Input
Amino acid sequence: MRRRSAAKLSKWWTAKLSSRSRIVPLAMLIGVVAAIAAAVLHWTVMLLEKLSGWLGNSASLWSWILLCALPFFGLCLSYLCQRVLGGPRYAKSLSPLILALNRRKTRIPFRETFNHIISSALSVGLGGSAGLEAPSVLTGAAIGANTSGFFGFDRRTRLLMTGCGAAAAISAIFGSPIGGALFAVEVLLPQFSVGALIPILISSAVAMVISRTFFPHEQILFVTNEPWVSDAIPFYFVLAVICAFVGVTVIRSVYKLTGILKKKLPTPYIRLLTGGVILCIILAIFPVLKGQGYHFIAALFDGDTEMICSAAPLFKMLSPEIILLILVAASIFLKAAVSALTVESGGDGGIFAPVMFVGAFTGFAFARLVNMTGLFELQLQELNFVVAGMCGVFSAVLRAPLTGVFLIADVTDSYILLVPLMIVSALSWAAARHFEPHSIYIKALAENGLLSEDSDKSLLQTLSVRVCIDTDFVALSPGVTMTQMQEAVENAPGCEYFPVLDSDKKLLGVVKLDQLKPLFFDQEIAESLLVFDLMETPACILNEDDDLLRAMSSLERHKTGFLPVNNHQGIFMGFVTEQEIFKLYRGLVRESNSF
Output
């Protein structure tokens, strides 16, 4: 009954409005739903954090022990949710989404519209060190893809609506419609033209209105900045270089730690147990690393370093200056690693909040250190440098400089610092790109050959070999004589190569027409030779799931115009040729230009 009603609604929608006219209301609908999803996630985390706060206020030893163990319980519950609701390929990073969108794949399972909300809320709300932005983006993208698919839009529009959902999620969380839209265009859909910003901006704006009107909550961060001074500009240049260094360290440490965990702890259960215990120990020593960390950034804005120091009871025997130094160093160099440990051990979360956290403490440490030296007549405005540090590390890690500028300006209400933010964002992006060419989302994909910044290569990676397999062939058995082969050639005009298959349809070799023509006129040789004697072993055999980039590279490397293709069972499927690949490539270029 529900399916028939849904089909009728989709049919009515299609009949009443043209494709272009439907895009704007659909973008608005996606914005509403994504905002509701983000609000549900936000409230759930707040409720769970209140539980942690209640345990933290208790003076008993058992309450403290339970508080230290909460992150482990959160990981276990989050992992259970992923196994039950997530399916076999549960993605906890934006990397798979970026790869799918790059290859024009828009089919996201419906369960993705809600499973990340539950999983990340349990993981982060109970003390895990991660952000909520990546789960929200994945949820918003799933909402956009499934909603546009329900109403029967084509692939290009579904891609655009996926970006609308992601932008709406960022807008609802941070209250930054411009930042959300720029993130979708810079990170998720760089192949789209400026015209794609219109529905993305609409969806992002609607999400913010819904979030502010029906689900009011305080802005994540708020600071009243002093106007920037010209004398401090050289220090913003220095800060940009430092942010680039910190950003590259974050990318490489997360990437290396993830590899070590998967290598040393190969099974999920071992990672959950071992990683969960290590995580609880680290968070017990450095409680400043728990959760998203926004309240500690707010403490920096308020100048309340005592609140930060009070969050480390194990160091209370030390002087406040030493405690602050230890916590600032831990915040800069451990936060990203602990976040990776949270996610890889079984939790769910993103890197947005940790990156902003690291950036805030980087800017604070730089300004405080310069002021403490007393070598300069100018006293740096620490609050301004905290904001600039957030922007610089964000741009260095995510490689989204425009998003960094407007998102941080919106979140902290710091448009008065627009010029310093532009300087720090641009320079940190450029410097980080020099030492580490890929963002934290792209690095693993690029190093595994799954994604390339070269536009031609990226286009060829969007399609698999199976879409251009030539199945119009005449198969031969190895015992066929030359006389029989001549008959086969005459019955198959246009065929230039013939596969030799065994009884199980597996490829033994290939016979080229150019080899056969001289032999057809020698009757003595024709009677004595078999196909088995003439067939050649292919230089390379492709798999049906290989992308066109690998196929083209193999053709060029082996200097041939065709290659055979097998399926996963080793059964021969046909040939792929240079001509067919070029034909598909021209179609992809036209489609890309239309975006």
About this structure: The mean pLDDT is 83.
